[in-house]
Amino acid sequence: MTTTPSPATEPAMPEPLSAPSFAVITGDQVQRALEGREKEIVEVVEGTYRLHGAGESVNPPSSFLRFHDRPTSRIIALPASIGGRDRVDGLKWISSFPQNVASGIPRASAVLILNDPDTGYPFACLESSIISATRTAASAASAADRLTRDRPRPLRVGFFGAGLIARYIHSFLVGTGWSFDEIGVHDLSADSAAGFRVYLEQSGSGGRVTVHSSAEDLIRLSDLVVFATVAGQPHVSDLSWFDHNPVVLHVSLRDLDPEILLASTNIVDDIEHCLRAGTSPHLTEQRTGNRDFVHGTLDDVMAGRVTVPPDRPVVFSPFGLGVLDLAVGKYVYDEVAHTGELRVADGFFHELRRYG
Ligand SMILES: NC(=O)c1ccc[n+]([C@@H]2O[C@H](COP(=O)([O-])OP(=O)(O)OC[C@H]3O[C@@H](n4cnc5c(N)ncnc54)[C@H](O)[C@@H]3O)[C@@H](O)[C@H]2O)c1
Hints:
The protein is an alpha/beta fold and about 350 residues long. The chain has helices spanning about 25-35, 40-55, 130-145, 165-175, 190-205, 215-220, 260, 270-275, 280-290, 300-305, 320-340, and strands at about 25, 55-60, 65, 75-80, 90-95, 110-115, 120-125, 155-160, 180-185, 210, 225, 245-250, 265-270, 295, 315. This is 2,3-diaminopropionate biosynthesis protein SbnB.
């Protein structure tokens, strides 16, 4: 007997594909899309850590372009792909030129390309220094929250390195509900410390601001310590400075001597990524020959697979994953599209007929 397949069992005809349009999203548009959305962005970042932890992402190692004649500068490519409901592929291309700061312009500049996961076509180019700083600050705010659930919530914060990332982290902490009695600042540059102090005072978020000329004082007097320097090698090695078991957000990754990490609970964003490129966790692995000092990822902490004892320091070292840039970039794209303000470059893709 022959049967005709019912329409319900026939394979669905694939939708015909077409090249998307291409939009350029400026820093001003990015900033407006993200302004005042700290809690929402922390949720986006935490959701992305969960997807990444569940294997629903592709995040190859970042590729570092370094220069013979400009040894302190670099440009990094971070390709990534996010699965799940809001799939998107893409690439962040971010420069770090520390000597820019002497001319009054930020160290980092970046673009983010979003690619359509069906056709591979790029569909947007976004100014991405703001996206990068935002996802970094959101990840730090998430870690500050998740790593202090089993200890008193810190009321004394210390910023070790007072540049743009420190500013974003402070505003994300405040935007997600933190308030501090004491805010310490330590920076090798008196100008940076003074500029950050002005920012803190104008932010109106409260707390007594103290600029510490001594790194030791900053750490000893802070229960939450944020490292956001541009140090290339560890410069903090005295374990006794951490006797009060602070929570350390080691965002700049290369400040702490392995001795400090070996005496701490170590949480990272991604173990493979973080144990590379001369980070303090990488140096610790090289010194010990193993990864036993890494207790888990922030996703492990969120899921309850790892708990953080209150009686030793905890150090969060986030390598900074391309998937976070993609997730926040896609959020920005959707917001700008939603408000009807996408600036499409008409005719960007021109050669669209295969045989002319
Ligand atoms: N992990 C991540 O995901 C991630 C993401 C973005 C940026 N970062 C890192 O954050 C760091 C800060 O970035 P930024 O844009 O704020 O840089 P920035 O140049 O604006 O500020 C860095 C500040 O650190 C100070 N500094 C340098 N060495 C110091 C030291 N040994 N002690 C005290 N202060 C010191 C400088 O004087 C400067 O004021 C960089 O290392 C960057 O790579 C990490």
